[in-house]
Amino acid sequence: MIGLGRRLLLLPLLLLELLSLGVYMAYRPRGSPSEASLDWASHWGGEAREYARAMTLCDGYLYITGSTQSLGAGKSDVFLLKYSREGDLIWNQTWGGEDHDMGRAIATDGRYLYVVGLSYDGEESKAVLLKYDAEGCLLWFRLWGPSEGAIARGVATDGRGGVYVAGYIGGFMAQETRGFLLKYSVEGELLWSRSWGETGADYCWAVAVDDGVYVGGTSRAASYRTEISLAKFSFDGDLLWVRWWGAGVQNYGWGLTASRGRIYQVGFSQDADGDADVVLLCYDREGSLRYVSLWGWSREDYGWAVTAAGPYLYVVGHTLCPEPYQWSDALIVKCSREGELLWNRTWGGMGGDIARSVVAEGDHIYVAGITYGLLRGGQVFLAGYISPNRGSTPLSRLAAAASIVDALLLGLLLASEVARRR
After folding, report:
1. Does the CA dihedral 36-40-44-48 come out positive or negative?
2. SS3 for 337-406, per residue?
3. Contact 143, 97 (CB under 8 A)
4. Residue 302 main-chain phi, psi, to 5 deg
5. Does residue 369 contact residue 356 with C-beta atoms inside 8 Å?
6. Closest Cα to residue 334, out of 364, 313, 355?
7. What pLDDT was estimated at residue 198?
């Protein structure tokens, strides 16, 4: 028999072993990051046409903005949708006048929502910024633009009371455009404005905040060749640097995110025949290009948005279906932060589908866009995917190590008891 002293020593070892095993089981890696599965999908819209442009995640809920022709007061109105992470619609709101109003981007400061886009009264367009609370109540809105017109395409917050709006001056069907960047307070006061552009075709499609304000877009270079542009501003509006990149004849930068000291920009590059590949650019804070990733699976593949979550990046867009079909499927891509492709998935059916925005949290990926597969003019879709987004964590590694040490000590103690009895 094992003596009383050894039995008293075994008891805490056994308890520690069970505790370590429980912690490891709770925090162990589940599945492979190279796996992905569709969890659910939801749709929203009426009999006309709806188009989802952007999405954000705030306090456990998903918020989507875009334009609707089925609801609202005008020819098209801004919409704002609130969904649970299980795909249940909680509420929807619209905003607009008698003509065209469209939502283009959305951001959150953790409490409030900021939606940007355009408001067109039939003669000129203005950039619009709307502030909502989490219940869908409009708190205020602001219009901005010179006589040439303006369209807002990106919005970001800095966590210090600043709201940044990026877009281009030129309005509907403009032949010449210039980029602009505005800074507002959270109360809606315009603090400063900046504009730039020498080529006659400078478009700003996205804005992100890190150690400064990064504005991404497209600029026309010589011989009508377009390049992807990235500009960095200080929080006071000083232009710090500008970078351009181009591989094909036409290059377009659409999505932008900043995370862990890196700036990721996504778009597409087209050759002279019109064939397109998704392009992902990674810059550091000084503007040095760290890498370029190009992906293509069909004749035409387009990237529209990018987000970072954990050690991974997620890119969405659309891919052209093989002939003889003339529609597209939504495209979802997962890669490492170094640009190494892990998987790509497509989603959709007959009629065409385009993914325009993506957010991720933990093992969950949420994709929003437009689908034409419901035999209507176009509806919003929201899809939830599951893909493991973590490897072994420090806590799981510590628990595993403790479990091994406990097992060794327990084994030594039992071996000692066997030897003593002999």
Report:
1. positive
2. CCCCEEEEEEECCCCCEEEEEEEEECCEEEEEEEECCCCCCCEEEEEEEECCCCCCCHHHHHHHHHHHHH
3. no
4. -125, 140
5. yes
6. 313
7. 67
Query: Model-level pTM?
Result: 0.85
Cβ atoms of 162 and 183 within 8 Å: the answer is: yes
H or E element in which residue 27 lies: helix 4-27
Token representation of residue 400 = 């595993």
Q: How far apart (Å, rounded) are the C-alpha atoms in residues 115 and 92?
A: 14
pLDDT tens for 154-181 read: 999 999 999 999 999 986 666 688 999 9
Residue/partner pairs of 192-199 with CB below 8 Å, 24 or more apart: 192/236, 192/237, 193/144, 193/237, 194/233, 194/237, 194/239, 195/169, 196/231, 196/239
As a whole number of angstroms, the distance between CA 419 and CA 422 comes to 5
Angle of helix 4-27 relative to helix 394-421, nearest 10 degrees?
150
Beta bridge partners of 418: none
CA separation for the pair 68, 51 (Å, rounded): 7
- For residue 145, which amino acid is it? G
Q: Is the dihedral of CA 43, 44, 46, 51 positive or negative?
A: negative
Nearest-5° Cα angle at 293, 290 to 297: 175
Burial class (CB in 10 A: 0-12, 13-18, 19+), 162: middle
List the structure tokens of 401: 């190590």
268 CB burial (10 A radius; 0-12, 13-18, 19+): buried
Q: Please state, in angstroms and rounded to a whole number, the distance separating the CA atoms of residues 219 and 200.
A: 9
pLDDT, tens digit, 9 for 90 and up, residues 56-84? 999 999 999 999 999 988 899 999 999 99
Partners of 94 in the beta sheet? Answer: 79
- Structure token pair of residue 91: 């509420």
* Residue bearing tokens 């939504």: 330
